[in-house]
């Protein structure tokens, strides 16, 4: 090869390499760091995690029991390149205020009231809802109150049908709903122990070694705070206010037909797959996935759920980013 051809070859290779690196870097999603913030609602500090461009479609992530926005710690950055992601802690959970039961009414009506004021204060006028466990009764109250605000639903082990409560886990809780005595309440305190918290995270998963102890390491010290057991018992009792509202929530689904993605851990002993199937009766725009994992499906199936959410949200939201 002549010297001239060698130089030409080197130049072409250099330009090609630069072009490849440029386009590869351009294809990488923008990085939006998670911000940890607090806002005051009716004298309470409500902590929340937020990431993503403010003008992108908004995702409001509502956590379950006994965790907090911590359960979304990996999902938020996985979606924040194209979505404005917000995950609050309810009063009594995570890093939000936890006033004693004699200073705050721990009911699902009141938690939903605080979350509705939270959405107004942050000017969330249109959003998709991620509903998990306790997030379902809170989120469905928001949806019924303001159906015009709901763009889509992502439901992960979040119940809205009687079929989802027909299992042994709920038997002692239902006794407490019928007769709120200290005896029946004390029988539920075992659900607030470290063993019970680990059980929630590990039961039904494929590989226990894949579940980080950072989960119960975050949750249990918060559950063990003085007065927090009384908070949780109040909410166990208040959960009995949810089944009577199921017909109202189901009517919302039938009337407004929000596009819905179900990503449900099918081995969950608390909200088993029996609670997922009835959504098919009421929703026309439904994408349905049963995942081979347990209650906290994000711990083992987080990348899968993020991928399914991105595909689903691209179809039903305006993702210009």
UniProtKB/TrEMBL annotation:
Pfam families: Abhydrolase_1. InterPro entries: AB_hydrolase_1, AB_hydrolase_fold, Epox_hydrolase-like, Haloalkane_dehalogenase. Residues 57-301 form the AB hydrolase-1 domain. This is Haloalkane dehalogenase. PANTHER family: AB HYDROLASE-1 DOMAIN-CONTAINING PROTEIN, HYDROLASE-RELATED. Gene3D superfamilies: alpha/beta hydrolase. The lineage of its organism: Bacteria, Pseudomonadati, Planctomycetota, Planctomycetia, Planctomycetales. It comes from Gimesia algae. Keywords: Hydrolase, Signal. One of its GO terms (molecular function) is haloalkane dehalogenase activity. Residues 1-26 form the signal peptide. It comes from the Bacteria. Its EC number is 3.8.1.5.
